[in-house]
Specification:
Elements lengths: L1 E7 L2 E7 L9 H8 L4 E7 L3 H17 L5 E7 L11 H11 L3 E3 L8 H17 L9 H8 L9
Parallel strand pairs: 3-4, 4-5
Antiparallel strand pairs: 1-2
Bound molecules: guanosine-5'-triphosphate.
Keywords: GTP-binding, Lipoprotein, Nucleotide-binding
Organism: Eleutherodactylus coqui
GO molecular function: GTP binding; GTPase activity
Length: 156
Amino acid sequence: MQNKVLNVDGVKVKLQIWDTAGQERFRSVTHAYYRDAHALLLLYDITNKTSFDNIQAWLTEIHEYAQKDVVIMLLGNKVDSTHERVVKIEDGERLAKEYGVPFMETSAKSGLNVELAFTAIGKELKHRSMKLPNEPKFKLHDYVKKEVKGSGCCKS
Ligand SMILES: Nc1nc2c(ncn2[C@@H]2O[C@H](COP(=O)(O)OP(=O)(O)OP(=O)(O)O)[C@@H](O)[C@H]2O)c(=O)[nH]1
């Protein structure tokens, strides 16, 4: 478990981050982890088709076990591994659209969009918790679309 403190528009937001194992054999353990989570980052590896195929099962499971209003974000990681890519950006986009979740490609190695993923979650959770009546609603999808950076390889 790791803590990350963000400054979201002058407000401190503390994220408590749990990295759960993706493997099937740990599923029963992971339920307990995400049952009470406010946000879930679902990562697949763009160089590993199986990891992408597993996302569908995760989304179905989350629907069953997670909080109804949980913030979900789909991330296609390892975008730095250009030559090993087997999952197209369009495939990620299509899946995200199907489930109505924001999507971006990331690289834990180069750092591409990593801060953005956490900031976006932080902003969404802050807006939800503050409930300021005069403040316009934070639009997570729009924010991600506006701020996301391409890998510089595959997008026109
Ligand atoms: N090139 C590249 N390698 C990465 C990236 N992110 C992770 N890796 C590598 O991928 C491997 C697996 O990373 P982990 O963070 O252990 O993956 P995980 O899915 O959490 O693994 P489990 O905890 O076993 O489920 C490691 O060797 C990482 O260095 C990335 O963005 N780019």
